[in-house]
Amino acid sequence: MPAQPLAEPGKELPLVFTAPKRRKPAAHWIDLGIDERIAAVQRLGHQKFRAQQLSHQWFERLAHTPDEWTDLPANARQQFVDELFPTLVTEINQQRADRGATIKTLWKLHDGSLVESVLMRYGAGEHSAARTTMCVSSQAGCGMACPFCATGQGGLQRNLSTGEIVMQVLDGARKLSRGELPGGPGRVSNIVFMGMGEPLANYKAVMGAVRTLVEPAPNGLGMSARGITVSTVGLVPRIEQLAGEGIPVTLALSLHAPDDELRDELVPINTRWKVDEVVDAAWHYAEKTRRRVSIEYIMIKDINDQPERADLLARVLKKRGDWGWFHVNLIPLNPTPGSIWTASDPAVEAEFVRRLQARGVPVTIRDTRGSDIDGACGQLAATAV
Ligand code: SAH
User: Beta strand pairing status for 228-232 and 250-254?
Assistant: First the structure.
């Protein structure tokens, strides 16, 4: 579908806020709390320490096939798999780019829904340490209908479960630990909820995934909260809820326009929560968690890249006293198939950066890893191959 505005500014937009009835996958080990895991192994007639062993295999050793579980009784392994580890995601396609350092995976879920995840390994650069980032999907499709985003064009199919989200990370972690990417065996250092879906519209499952990711081994992946980024269109009540969780994940706010008139069109949920409200919520989040919030801003040629918009963006961000909590991340538009929009010219982008910097706003430009395999931001639109 061409990426065109879905409606004239000011007109009613077809927003979908809630998922249709969820077709739940079978309960999986990942979806259970620690006590529930113990109860589950006991229900199957085993001693409670087996729960610890299974978690050690699953989350720490990333051993997901029963023949790898050599510390568990051979005759019980299949029973555990059948009862507690149903297959949640099946890899149906894999594409590589950047000489193998970027891998996009297409997953089929138990009900046939399709989602994608992208694993990106970065070497140490002049300004950055080596890291590996896993970009995960939180929903099959998305209901936020942003006209420039490939996922947004198809609407929402359903929310993912915690298990389905964590499995994407575990798969990336496993590929890395097995040395399947150039650079030798490694670990996932960062997670970004920037794949398909609006994470804060699937709050409970996403928080379940975040808790599993930060839970120390053997019951979780033991990652640091600051290495996890939740990216949102700006669901204000959910941002406030997230601030109260006591898990200081990094928040990214997809702002894309500093004025309501344009943002109503680019991020249709803006008709519900305005620029000022979302920026306020982001500011409170930063203040409460002491984490800098990333303000995402796609650069679309002649749409939102004018010099006056750079000035207005700086003003909007500076309104709140201690505004050093914000950091602007410019993303060159990755045009979706048939898009009438293109990325800003480099000179225009440079002027936009210059104006923000002149007003003291920290700004970086996002790289477009994986764009040649439609694996870059906003290009994920899963279709079976
Ligand atoms: N729903 C969430 C997370 C998924 S999108 C959100 O909107 O933040 C992750 C980021 O990619 C968002 O900032 C989104 O606006 C951006 N994005 C979407 N489509 C894009 C495109 N075609 N080119 C560049 N960035 C895009």
Answer: parallel
CB 296 within 8 A of CB 252: yes
Kindly list the distances between the CA atom of residue 216 and the CA atoms of 39, 174, 198, 224, in Å, as whole numbers in the listed order: 20, 17, 26, 9
Told to judge if 180 belongs to the known catalytic residues of this protein, a careful annotator would answer no
Nearest CA to ligand 1 atom 4: 194
Residue recorded with tokens 């999986």: 28
* pTM confidence score: 0.92
Please tell me which residue in 135, 146, 149, 377 is annotated as part of the active site.
Answer: 377
- Asked whether 143 and 156 are in contact (CB, 8 A), the reply is yes
For residue 185, give the DSSP letter. S
Q: What are the tens digits of pLDDT across the range 103-124? A: 999 999 999 999 999 999 988 6
Task: Report all structural domains of the chain as residue ranges with CATH numbers, in order of start.
Answer: 29-84 (1.10.150.530), 87-384 (3.20.20.70)
Asked whether the CA dihedral 213, 233, 144, 238 is positive or negative, the reply is positive
**Tell me, what DSSP letter sits at residue 343?**
B
